[in-house]
Amino acid sequence: MVRRLTLWIAAAIAIALLTGSAPPAAAQDLTIAFIRSEAILEQYQRARTATETFNRDVQAWNEEAQTRRRELDLLDKELQAQAPMLSDQVRMEKEQDFQQKLNEYEQFVQSVWGPNGLVTQRNEELLRDVVLRIQQATTRIAEREGYDIVFDGSDGNIIYADPAYDATQLVLDELNQTQTEP
């Protein structure tokens, strides 16, 4: 939903610039290009290496989670089988031990796959340099080739735009003006 909204906003701004909401000379000379970041990430060696490293890390975390889950399942089966023969005291201790291991497992899963977990952190860490290099290359090409705006065709985000076409302040001014009106 947010992705579609972003794409619609970007398209509306581009249309406004192309149809005359921008200064006439600027609208006539506007040069737009796009890149396909998915293709770049598939074909750029640094990106492939980062993806391979990320996938290995995720696989290791998956294996760790599966091992912990199997241990929990075995402990649960053992507890269920022995429960009728155990004294209340021993049964409660084993149930508490099981609950503690279950909590540790759930904490592990959250620390890896939860919000801001290790998966997210590792992905950002590995791709930060790749994304920066892609942005820098896109900017150099845009400046060299005279592109005013470069869209990412994979998701509709703008990768580079000539600051002269940045309508952010105009939009903010308009929003702030309508906010003060009744």
Task: Please give a quick description of this structure.
With 182 residues, the chain is mainly alpha-helical. The protein is built from seven helices and three strands, in the order H-H-E-H-H-H-H-E-E-H.
What does this structure look like?
With 182 residues, this protein is mainly alpha-helical. The chain has a domain at 46-117. It contains seven helices and three strands. It has a three-stranded mixed β-sheet, with helices on one face. Helix 3 (37-43) crosses helix 4 (45-82), helix 4 runs antiparallel to helix 5 and helix 4 (45-82) packs antiparallel against helix 6 (118-145). The longest helix is centred in the middle third of the chain and has 38 residues, at 45-82. The radius of gyration is 27 Å and the shape is elongated. Residues 1-9 and 16-25 have low confidence and may be disordered.
Number of helices: 7
Structural class: mainly alpha
Strand share of the residues? Answer: 5-15%
Strand adjacency order, main sheet: 1-2-3
C-alpha geometry: elongated
Structure characteristics:
mainly alpha; 7% strand; 182 residues; disordered N terminus
What topology emerges from the helices and strands here?
Layout: H1 2-18, H2 24-29, E1 32-35, H3 37-43, H4 45-82, H5 88-113, H6 118-145, E2 149-152, E3 158-161, H7 168-180
Parallel strand pairs: 1-2
Antiparallel strand pairs: 2-3
Helix pairs in contact: 3-4, 4-5, 4-6
